[in-house]
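# step 3/5: fold
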Amino acid sequence: MKNFACMFAVAVFMITSRVEAQSFAIEETTIAGVQEALQGKATTCRQIVQAYLDRIAAYDRKGPALNAILTLNPKALAEADRLDAERAAGAAMGPLFCAPLVLKDNYNTADLPTTGGSAALEGMQPPADAFVVARLRKAGAIILGKSNMHEFALAGTTVSSLGGQTLDAYDLTRTPGGSSGGTGVAVAANLALAGTGSDTVNSIRSPASANALVGIRPTKGLLSRSGIMPVSETQDAIGPIARNVADAARLLEVMAGYDPNDPATAWSIGNTPAGYVQFLKAGGLRGARIGVLKAMYGNASEHQDVNAVMAAAIAALKNAGAEVVDVDAPALDANKLGPENDVQKYEFKTLINAYLAQCPGKDTFRDHRIRQGSQAFAGEIFVERGSVHQRHGGAGLQGAAVAKPAYAAGADVGFRRARAGCDRLPAAATAGRAVERTQSGRPQRHSCFRHRISGHHRAGRVLAADRKCPAGRAGRNGYSGKTLERGTFD
C-alpha cells in the first residue's frame, strides 16, 4: 500500500509539473519573466522556444500571414536543449538566458543567411557573427531567425524582393514602418521576445512607433556596426527593439562595447556607465532633464493627432518628475533636415561594395551580376526610390546590358514574391490605399505597390503610383524627397 501511495504521489507530481510547464504564457512576457519561470521550473527553454515557433507558424505563415520572418533558425530547439542541459547541471543563467530573439536580416550571422531582403543575395552566408550578435549569443540569447526588412534598408515600408510586404500587427491595411518593420511586427505579435534593428534615418523609431514598442537608436559609437550591412557611415546606427523599457535596456547593456572593427566605438571608452539595467528603478525620471525638439514636430493638420500623443507623453514625463526643456533648433526642422542633410545616397555605393567584397563565396553570385562587354560590375549598386538594382556600367540603365539566365530567373522570382506580398494585403487596402507612416508621423497614402518590369527595371521594383515620376527620372528617394537620376547618385 505504501509503494502504491509513493507511485501515486510521483504520478501526481509529474502531471502537475507538466501542467505548470504548459501554463506559462509567452504572450507579453519579459526577459525577467522568462528567467523567473525557468528558475521556478514552470517551463523549460525548449518549451518556450517551441511556443514562439508555434506562433510564427500560426500567425506569420498562416492566419493573418504577417510575413515578418524571412528565415527560421533550424537549430533553435537544439540551442534550447543545450541551455536546458546547462541549467540542469547547475550553470548560472546569463543576462539573456533563453531569450528568443529575431535579428533584422542585415545583421551577419554565421549560421543563417544575411540577405538585406534582396533576392539577388538569397543564401549569402557570412563567415562570422556580427560583433553584437556574438555578444547576444554569449549572454544566452537564442536566435529564432531573421526578420524581413525594407530591401537593403533604403526605405520605410518594409517590402523586399525576397520577403514581400510585411503587414502591421495592429492594422493589416497599414505598413509596419521600416526599414526594421519585420522585427517590429515579430515583437509586437509575440513571434519573438525582442529583436534588433538598424537606423539610418528613422528605421528603428518608425517601426517602434507603428507597433507600440520601445526602440533605441543610441549615440553613435555606443554599439558596434561591424558585421551589419551598411548604408551610411555618417548616419548608420543599430539598436534593440522590445515591448518595454526594461527589455530594451537589457539588450542594450549586452550589445554595448568597444569593437576595434568599428573605430567609432572608441569614443565610448570611459564615457558609458557600467550598465543600463541599474537605472531601472522607481522614480528614475525624477530630476532628469529631457529636451523636446519642437522643430521636429509637424505643423500641418494631418500632424495634430501625433502632436496630441506627444503632448500626453510629455505630461506623463513631467508627472514622473522629469524636467522638460523645449529646445529651439531651426536647423533641425524636420521639413529641411532630410532633404538638405541626408547623405546616405552619397555614401551607400562605396560602403555596400566594400561589404559585398568581403562576403565569402561571392563568386557564387557571379550569375547575378550584370555585365557589359568584358567588364564585370560586381556588386555595383545604385539607389532608386529606395530600391536597389544592379548597375549596367558607364552607359547607365540605358545601356544594352545582357543579364545571364540565372540573374533573370532570380529577378522573376523576386518579382513574384513582391507581387505575392502585395496581393496578401486585405481588399480594403488594395481597393483603397495602403498607408505609410513617415518619420514625421504624417500618414502618406499610396496605392498598393505597382511594379514596373522592363529591360532595366528589375525584380522588387516598387513605385508608389500616386507619386508621379518626372520625365526621364526613375523615382524619389523615400526619405529625402530628392529625385535621383537613373543609375547615378546626383
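# step 4/5: annotate
DSSP finds 13 helices and 18 strands in the chain.
# step 5/5: archive (pending)
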